[in-house]
Amino acid sequence: GGYLGTQGHSVGEWMAQGGTVTFTGKDVVTQQGAQVNLSGGTVDVQAGYIRQTWLKGPDGQLYELSKAPGDILYAGIYKGFEDTSVRWGRSDFYYNPLVAQQSRYEAGYTVGRDAGKLVVGTTNAVLEGQLISDVFQGDRQTQAPNINLDGYQQSQQAMAQRAQLIIGQYTPVYNKATGTLRYALTPTIDQVLIESSTQKIADGLDLATALPTERQGKLVLDSDQLNGYRLGAIKVGAKQQIDVNGALKVADGGDITLFGPVVSVNANLTAHGGSINAGNLLNQVDLNRSNVVGDVILPGIGRLDVAAGVKLDSSGRWNNLALDPSATDGVAYINGGKVSLRNSGDVNLAAGSLVETSSGATIGLDGKVR
């Protein structure tokens, strides 16, 4: 690791990850036909030879260092056939590359990098433009990415994450102890409605004037449109209320976060192998407490309702490479994810609502449960 840390990196490698588009202020309107492209790029890893070191085991076998078992007491590093002279008190070594190859050839490959973020931190917003979140998945990218790690720090075998849509301010804070970035989601819009096939409300709006009174402090999102983007994360913060009336789905391993004083979930939420968070209590960076990571509670009455028949699904993906070796899309997310319902007030789960995972779910219920 230390040696790898001394290697240089080109600007193209660092900039392969998608960037961040942030809107702040009072109003933002994206009209039909407008595009916000957050797609991730690629990194081409060149072919070459990798040097190998071999360890001598007590059984006379040789073990390549990167694959050597950790429960064996080794006799040392293999330097070749050892000819020891007792008279002269010296040893000569004769290395045979046929016994232990000193290098192996590694073919080149291409790795896809994460898409970027669209942060809407305005007081009022109308979003009807298109959001592009394409990413490239290489043949070797078959592992789930590490949570809370920046794209630059992910393994070359981790799946590239699609773009994130964030409603509210999203403040990055660097943690010196871990060397990672954590974020604080702060609501800026009063009310967010997630509807199915909403009417195109941007038609006829005059960009030279303020939004109509009925649109002040309210954001309406089209769930069908969002589902078509296959986003890596949808994180919504609201000062007063969040209503989900249309089924919402993110890409495998993605995240759905609904952070508001009053949250009403009236339609299915799906994040296979990912996470679903809802309520007025969220574990994140606390900007009011010296940027420590902890539970942040929004002010307000505190109420979380999950309607009858609603399914919160973070189950893992079924996969069988024996049937189709090329079908590797679901390999990284065969494990179930997390469902967290956390609220300082009432948490109401109506009869018939269902939480489903394939490997167990984490459900935090901090208020009254009916």
Overall residue-averaged pLDDT value: 86
Secondary-structure content class: mainly beta
Task: Give the helix level as a range of percent.
Answer: under 10%
Rg is 26 Å
Provide a quick synopsis of the model.
With 370 residues, the protein is mainly beta. It folds into two domains: 4-45 and 110-356, no CATH class; 49-106, no CATH class.
Could you describe the 3D structure shown?
With 370 residues, the chain is mostly beta strands. The protein is built from 2 helices and 32 strands. The radius of gyration is 26 Å and the shape is elongated.
Write the layout of secondary structure elements.
Blueprint (H helix, E strand, L loop, with lengths): L10 H4 L5 E11 L4 E3 L4 E4 L2 E4 L2 E3 L5 E3 L11 E2 L3 E5 L4 E5 L8 E4 L2 E4 L4 E11 L2 E3 L31 E4 L1 E7 L4 E7 L4 E5 L22 E5 H7 L3 E5 L3 E4 L3 E2 L5 E5 L2 E4 L3 E2 L4 E5 L1 E6 L5 E6 L5 E4 L4 E3 L24 E4 L4 E4 L4 E3 L14
Parallel strand pairs: 1-12, 2-13, 12-14, 14-19, 17-18, 17-20, 19-22, 20-23, 21-24, 22-25, 23-28, 24-29, 25-30, 28-31, 29-32
Antiparallel strand pairs: 3-11, 4-10, 5-6, 5-7, 8-9, 15-16, 26-27
Search tags:
370 residues; mainly beta; 2 domains; seven-stranded parallel sheet; six-stranded parallel sheet; disordered C terminus
